[in-house]
Amino acid sequence: MMNLADLGRRGLVLLGCGKMGSALLEGWLGRGLALNSVWVTEPFPSDWLKGLAARGLHLNAPLPDAPAVVLVAVKPQMMAEALPTLGALGGGGTLFLTVAAGTPIAFYERTLGPGTPVIRAMPNTPAAVGRGITAITGNPLASEDHLALAEALLSAVGQVVRLEGEHQMDAVTALSGSGPAYVFHLIEALAAAGEAEGLPAPLAMQLARATVTGAGELAHRAPETAAQLRINVTSPGGTTAAALAVLMDADTGLGPLMQRAVKAAADRGRELAR
Ligand SMILES: NC(=O)C1=CN([C@@H]2O[C@H](COP(=O)(O)OP(=O)(O)OC[C@H]3O[C@@H](n4cnc5c(N)ncnc54)[C@H](OP(=O)(O)O)[C@@H]3O)[C@@H](O)[C@H]2O)C=CC1
Ligand SMILES: O=C(O)[C@@H]1CCC=N1
């Protein structure tokens, strides 16, 4: 694991520091990255960022000539406006690590110059509690050292997996990038169903939230497969089996519904890439 303090000499730049940029920065600072080795470009900085700036982080200040890494964490819709401001850093040994959904590596190469190492990463918001999962893939100029550096940076907020190539990125975005939202919606839907069965709203929400987070933690820690954990809950002829008959219906169950949802997200990723 690379020592984040090693980045201090050349510096690390964040272009955009909203939810995802902040989650990553918090993880890095927690692992010993020095505040004065971080430059953040962000039009509307949070109070948290302003507090860090008071303690040495460079906020909306002139950038170093050749930082080790630029993390790009603006929304894809802002990319065409934001990225060209860093054009001077392209092609000069700075690794561009981007978490933006949809925007293809070719866009960065066009904007920053073909000699620029680019790694595209797809994290997710459990990064905020160190339990994210991030998938990465790079252009041909991204060396093994660059990939290892990206892995070291991103492992500060959870697991990291390498993809076979960029062609897998839309599916990954639709599964793990957007996936936490599906789980949060499951909590909402479960609570609403409990209310429909007569429970008061606060109790239904407490039960639903604890059930989803508890089941998630069990899935995280237990050696069994998800299928076995499901079977462990299901008494023959009991209540769970009755619910699963609905949820596992081949036509109207959660399987085909989830396929439609994930396909919609992947299709949107492909649209954003155009
Ligand atoms: N949220 C998620 O679950 C995930 C997000 N991503 C990707 O991460 C990226 C960031 O998303 P997220 O953190 O949620 O979004 P946010 O809107 O929270 O963060 C984006 C930040 O970039 C800032 N910004 C806008 N224009 C510029 C500019 N010209 N220069 C510098 N900064 C600018 C925005 O400022 P302002 O608010 O003032 O406009 C904002 O603070 C996106 O590309 C998204 O696709 C990837 C995986 C998961
Ligand atoms: O909704 C989005 O576009 C981003 C990408 C993955 C999660 N959030």
TrEMBL record:
<comment type="pathway">
    <text>Amino-acid biosynthesis; L-proline biosynthesis; L-proline from L-glutamate 5-semialdehyde: step 1/1.</text>
</comment>
<feature type="binding site">
    <location>
        <begin position="73"/>
        <end position="76"/>
    </location>
    <ligand>
        <name>NADP(+)</name>
    </ligand>
</feature>
<feature type="domain" description="Pyrroline-5-carboxylate reductase catalytic N-terminal">
    <location>
        <begin position="13"/>
        <end position="86"/>
    </location>
</feature>
<dbReference type="GO" id="GO:0004735">
    <property type="term" value="F:pyrroline-5-carboxylate reductase activity"/>
</dbReference>
<dbReference type="InterPro" id="IPR029036">
    <property type="entry name" value="P5CR_dimer"/>
</dbReference>
<comment type="similarity">
    <text>Belongs to the pyrroline-5-carboxylate reductase family.</text>
</comment>
<dbReference type="InterPro" id="IPR000304">
    <property type="entry name" value="Pyrroline-COOH_reductase"/>
</dbReference>
<dbReference type="Pfam" id="PF03807">
    <property type="entry name" value="F420_oxidored"/>
</dbReference>
<dbReference type="Pfam" id="PF14748">
    <property type="entry name" value="P5CR_dimer"/>
</dbReference>
<dbReference type="InterPro" id="IPR036291">
    <property type="entry name" value="NAD(P)-bd_dom_sf"/>
</dbReference>
<dbReference type="InterPro" id="IPR028939">
    <property type="entry name" value="P5C_Rdtase_cat_N"/>
</dbReference>
<keyword id="KW-0963">Cytoplasm</keyword>
<keyword id="KW-0028">Amino-acid biosynthesis</keyword>
<feature type="binding site">
    <location>
        <position position="60"/>
    </location>
    <ligand>
        <name>NADPH</name>
    </ligand>
</feature>
<keyword id="KW-0641">Proline biosynthesis</keyword>
<feature type="domain" description="Pyrroline-5-carboxylate reductase dimerisation">
    <location>
        <begin position="166"/>
        <end position="272"/>
    </location>
</feature>
<keyword id="KW-0521">NADP</keyword>
<protein>
    <recommendedName>
        <fullName>Pyrroline-5-carboxylate reductase</fullName>
        <ecNumber>1.5.1.2</ecNumber>
    </recommendedName>
</protein>
<feature type="binding site">
    <location>
        <begin position="15"/>
        <end position="20"/>
    </location>
    <ligand>
        <name>NADP(+)</name>
    </ligand>
</feature>
<dbReference type="InterPro" id="IPR008927">
    <property type="entry name" value="6-PGluconate_DH-like_C_sf"/>
</dbReference>
<dbReference type="GO" id="GO:0055129">
    <property type="term" value="P:L-proline biosynthetic process"/>
</dbReference>
<keyword id="KW-0560">Oxidoreductase</keyword>
<dbReference type="GO" id="GO:0005737">
    <property type="term" value="C:cytoplasm"/>
</dbReference>
<comment type="function">
    <text>Catalyzes the reduction of 1-pyrroline-5-carboxylate (PCA) to L-proline.</text>
</comment>
